[in-house]
Amino acid sequence: xxxxxxxxxxxxxxxxxxxxxxxxxxxxxxxxxxxxxxxxxxxxxxxxxxxxxxxxxxxxxxxxxxxxxxxxxxxxxxxxxxxxxxxxxxxxxxxxxxxxxxxxxxxxxxxxxxxxxxxxxxxxxxxxxxxxxxxxxxxxxxxxxxxxxxxxxxxxxxxxxxxxxxxxxxxxxxxxxxxxxxxxxxxxxxxxxxxxxxxxxxxxxxxxxxxxxxxxxxxxxxxxxxxxxxxxxxxxxxxxxxxxxxxxxxxxxxxxxxxxxxxxxxxxxxxxxxxxxxxxxxxxxxxxxxxxxxxxxxxxxxxxxxxxxxxxxxxxxxxxxxxxxxxxxxxxxxxxxxxxxxxxxxxxxxxxxxxxxxxxxxxxxxxxxxxxxxxxxxxxxxxxxxxxxxxxxxxxxxxxxxxxxxxxxxxxxxxxxxxxxxxxxxxxxxxxxxxxxxxxxxxxxxxxxxxxxxxxxxxxxxxxxxxxxxxxxxxxxxxxxxxxxxxxxxxxxxxxxxxxxxx
Length: 503
Hints:
mainly beta
């Protein structure tokens, strides 16, 4: 049948399948008795890291950070606490000015945050359970960021559910690993096993939710370098410019952007880039944010409780570890403002943010090939008279349809649309004509191919497709559909009634 704008063949069968996503949018050798803190087989030389930028004015509602001490973080020579006064480090000294004012091998981290006036810090003491949604004052729902500094005990099923739900609902999660075999309490679980177990064996999402896995490695020593970036908030945070870090027996992560396109490597092992050898990485999940660091050596400030052998990696001149830890905490804590993982304090206003979602305003708002947005009756709209019609020529041809949208920070986001596919192809085995749904950044780089559909997916009627776009919260991205036909026999990909809802 001939359409009013361009010749197309109307096929008796109709319908189909479609999908799309969008969002606008982060020690001891194996088997040995734990002896060296920070996974450091070689003592890191003491140096002076770049000083933090001047502290900003104090927030009316400080960011709330909870450091874990329930998973053997002080076993062996480890001392991964911000202070011995727990849960409140202010019990040791209310106005610390030096990292030795609080006792712990990561007290420099805690004091560095405390001195800004923008953070409220607590420790979850040993013997407690990680929870979400309870009445406990130390429940994750009451915090913006949760730090797991080299955990050495597997989380229970309920604790993993709590952590994953916390992140999904807007919390920030800081995961710090160590090298393979650094089992400080000899219970069969080292930090990399604990972290991988959280990501792959939980009741919320075990399908590689963060887009990375921790490598089973023991890298003796290296000075990884940061990527070149003038915009990344962790590399360029208010605590200073990040140039790199240190590995003194640690590991890396393998990135899997096909599973989560938001995953990003920021610091890489020497000789590595892309999806392998990421020593520091960030990602998102739902409305929350995640950071991973492959070694505890960089957070070790060299001082702590008596009897521990500690090394100063925090100030090691081979890295800018202080800036990296503090900037990352700043970024993670901004995932939900001061609302924590409860989503209750976000500024997100429920709305539908796609322009001209049903195409009834004609060829406006969207960027489309000629004739794509049409009221041609040869392919009826699902509702109204206009729709987007890609393909349908029966000759070699490519159509595109796109719109750039910003997903507000801290918002949950869901994309919905209806797709109808009909075809004149008779094959049951070959995909001659395709529709690709992709997310691109402002430079036109494809961040993710969300789905590929073809003449083999033709069916009657329109089919609703729904996708969670929370991974792109806080970003501006382009959603693009590309329909490509072969040299003969048409396939029409018809889209109508789109919506991108944020809440």
